[in-house]
Amino acid sequence: MHPSTVRVIWAIYRKDLAVWWQNRVSLVASIMPVVGFLVVQAVGAAAVGRNPVALVTLDSGPAGQQMQQIIHTADVFRLTDATPEQAQALLHDLRVAAVITIPADFTQRVLAHDPAPVEVTLNNLNLDFANDIRRAVPDAITQYYAAQGSASPIKVTIRETDLRQRDIQFFQYNVLPLLVLLLVLNGLVTSGIAAAREWESRTVKEMLLAPIPGRGIILGKVLAGFTVTFLLGLLMLLMGAALDWTRPAGVEWLTSLMIIALVSFMATGLGVAVGAAVQHIQPVTGLSINVAFYLFFLAGGIGVLAFQPAWLQAVAVFNPLAYGVHALQMAVFYGSTDQLGRDMLVLSLCSLAALGLGALSLRRGISA
Fold it and tell me: How far apart are CA 123 and CA 98, in angstroms?
């Protein structure tokens, strides 16, 4: 590369970073929606992770106390021990979703080998909550029989074989899709605004009259947007590691950084293309945010893509964000290289295509 081109790239790069630093509206526009989603996910995870239930224990016998202990240690409810009157008040005030009652004759029935039902009063105002409780109560009862061992009238042996070495909380699982959303959103908004500002401030005329190569302008803008986006993604990854949300191990740090870099390049190229095509900051910001969110949702950003509707899985095949999310989850959470080659290839090709589209759009805008 000719030294003059390098100087042009460096000058455009420094100028765009300086302008961005003085006008950090794009950073706010990129971060605030993701922060909002993060808060929503945290609240949602707390709400659906373990349902609030009141436990009424009327039996002071050994079987009743054992059942009470099993329900407490089953880790499937947020329990409140209560009297029958307190439990009904909690249920009426919607402070619990159900009341589980261990009847007074529970031990007597167990010793007599008679049916010993555990009573459940369920508020089925929401099918998701109701079904969670319907599944959780039998699970706790199963653990009760398993804890009795050979003395149990029902022989139950629980054996769990995990496909993954690590259990990931629901909230943690959703952090990485939001990281990808942040990269795409910031890349589109930052680069789009930087490109559109040249037309709004009329500095594009100076570029047209200056004896500088067009590829230097393009590369300078792309590298400036990439730097901001990549560093923001790196900061979020490090914050996640500090909070034990996202903590890659060993070489997976390098893999994670490569994925973040590819997604950043792709988003930056798209941002330059949008900015050069629209040429006005306000519509560029709105369009970039909409494009980022559509790509995010169509990649199965909320939930597990494999369990999403068939039409969404079919659409996600053509969405590069789906590959970025999968690659990050495998690297960060599971230390796995499952389909890493495929994911990296798709992200690399999409990054090159986005950069080419951005360069073509900016070149046409400057030469027009």
Answer: 6
Specify whether the CB–CB gap between 116 and 64 falls below 8 A. Answer: no
So what's the pLDDT on residue 13? Answer: 81
Assigned domain for 100 exists: yes
| Whole-number Cα distances in Å, 317 to 105, 179, 297, 299, 324 | 57, 20, 13, 8, 12
Measured torsion, CA atoms of residues 190, 193, 194, 195, in degrees rounded to the nearest 10: 120
For tokens 């995010």, the residue is: 296
pLDDT of residue 38: 79
- What's the rounded Cα separation, in Å, for the pair 177 and 179? 5
> What pTM does this model have?
0.77
Q: Which residues of 273-293 are buried (b: 16+ CB within 10 A; e: fewer)?
A: bbbbbbbebeebbebbbebbb
Domain count, the chain: 2
Strand partners, 100: 55, 120
CATH of the domain at 62: 3.40.1710.10
129 domain residue, yes or no: yes
Q: Which of 151, 175, 195 is the last residue of a domain?
A: 151
Domain span including residue 306 = 3-43+167-367
Distance CA 130, CA 254 (A): 43
| Average pLDDT per consecutive 10 residues, the chain (368 residues; last block may be shorter) | 71 80 72 78 68 92 90 84 94 91 91 87 82 83 79 71 77 88 90 82 65 69 88 90 84 93 92 86 88 90 84 93 93 88 94 84 63
- 98 Cβ contact list (under 8 Å, min separation 6): 51, 53, 54, 91, 120, 121, 122, 123, 133
Last residue in a domain, options 151, 185, 217: 151
For the chain, where are the alpha helices, taking DSSP H only? 3-22, 25-49, 62-73, 84-92, 106-111, 127-147, 170-200, 203-209, 214-242, 252-278, 281-298, 310-316, 320-334, 340-367
CA distance 236 to 241: 9
Structure tokens at 70: 């099993």
